[in-house]
Amino acid sequence: MSVDQAKVVKIFTIILVLFSFALCISSFVTAKQCYVKPCYEGDGQDMLWSIDGGRSFHVVFLSLVCFTQAIAAFWILFRIKFDELKYGMLVAITSILALALFTQAVYYGQQSNLLVELKDHLNGNAFYEGNKYCVGNETTCADNGHSCTWVAVYDSCQRTMYVDNKARSKFDAVTAFSVLLAVTQMTFAFMLSTWRTEFTSQFGGLPRAADTPSRVSYAPSQSQAQPQRQANDMQVEEDDSSVSYQADNLRL
Q1: Are 40 and 50 in contact (CB under 8 A)?
Q2: In the chain, where do the E strands start and end?
Q3: 52-56, long-range: CB within 8 Å, 24+ apart, which pairs?
Q4: Which residues contact 47 (CB under 8 A, 6 or more apart)?
Q5: DSSP category for residue 128
Q6: Helices then strands (H, E): number in the chain?
Q7: Mean of the pLDDT values across residues 57-65?
Q8: CA dihedral 123, 119, 132, 52 (to 10 degrees)
Q9: Which of 2, 22, 134, 216 is most open to solvent, judged by the fewest CB atoms within 10 Å of its CB?
Q10: What whole-number distance in Å separates Cα of residue 48 and Cα of residue 36?
Q11: CA–CA distance, 161 with 36 (Å, rounded to integer)
């Protein structure tokens, strides 16, 4: 049973667009996400206890690159004339993105597991932070509206923070879509590499330009073979004339 390779490639391209879009949405809500609620506000602590600016840029940028690559793949494969350089670059970029997505999935899976460990470590308790808004005594501490609590252990008014369960859901979403997209990207790259010759002759959305090189060898057509046959006949006649002339000279 033959496989409609063009249809399979188009289906995978659509899947890439859908998964990339889902990853974009997940990355937007994950950027700058804090591990605890409310977030730490101390210098440096706010970066340690959240997806900081650098990691936020990475997850958003990678998701946008994947979405752009999926759109570009459909354009290169089905909307412009075949070009070996563009085809090869598409296969290479697809493979690199698959590896990058896999490492991203590992990282955010670890972040999700970190929140589980923090919650188990607290065992129903909370983290505390000294804050300029948390002032007062045991009676007035909780009346300032900044999540402040009087902590007897510290004998002071402290800002109270709990592990944010919604953050874990966001990390799980990024992990899931990164894995799905990585597997799809790797499969897509494998198909393009395996069906390279077939794609050249069958999958182009537009007819191949006359000056575009082909990887497929074809037997010469009858119109192409006729001039060559005539040239060969003329060469044979010249050779026969030369032999006849030499024979006449020898008889003389």
Answers
A1: yes
A2: 36-37, 127-129, 148-151, 156-163
A3: 56/30, 56/31, 56/32
A4: 53
A5: E
A6: 7, 4
A7: 96
A8: 170
A9: 2
A10: 11
A11: 6
**pLDDT attached to residue 144:** 66
Quick one: how far is CA 136 from the chain centroid?
52
Closest listed residue to residue 213, CA positions, set 77, 86, 84, 78: 84
* pTM confidence score: 0.72
CA distance 83 to 200: 9
C-alpha–C-alpha distance, residues 227 and 223, integer Å: 8
Total residues belonging to the chain: 252
30 burial type by CB count under 10 A (0-12 exposed, 13-18 middle, 19+ buried): buried
Token pair listed for 175: 């992990």
State the pLDDT confidence band at 26, using cuts at 50, 70 and 90: very high
Give the integer Cα–Cα distance in Å for 41 and 146.
12
CB 175 within 8 A of CB 105: yes
* Two structure tokens written together for 13: 């391209």
DSSP strand pairing (156-163 vs 36-37) = antiparallel
- In contact, 72 and 90? CB cutoff 8 Å: yes
Q: What are phi and psi of 172, to 5 degrees?
A: -65, -35
- Measured CA to CA, the distance from residue 138 to residue 92 in angstroms comes to 63
At 148 the three-state DSSP class reads: strand
Summarised one tens digit per residue, pLDDT across range 142-178 is: 766 778 888 887 888 888 888 998 999 999 999 999 9
